[in-house]
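During the no-cost extension, the postdoctoral fellow (Dr. R.K.) reprocessed legacy sequence entries with the updated structure-token encoder. One reprocessed record is reproduced below for audit purposes.
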Amino acid sequence: FLDTSRGVAEMALIRKGDDGTLVYLAEFILSAKGFYTGKMDADYGSGLKSAVEAFQRSRGLEADGVVGKDTWYALFN
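Re-encoded structure tokens follow.
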């Protein structure tokens, strides 16, 4: 199950400049976890990138600001 989940998450990669439902989901989860305080606008800007990087550092992940498979997994756990 874990390998399947990570495989699906790999297809859901988002980064600065992206927009849409997955960006909104990242904003929502990071807000709930206390990392994001910006507008919930589904637009991956500098504020969300900083929040992603802070979250990644807190989980011992590479703080690259890209929400890929490992970051999605950490967000949901």
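The chain has a mean pLDDT of 92. Residues 46-58 form the longest helix (13 residues). The remaining legacy entries will be reprocessed before the final report is submitted.
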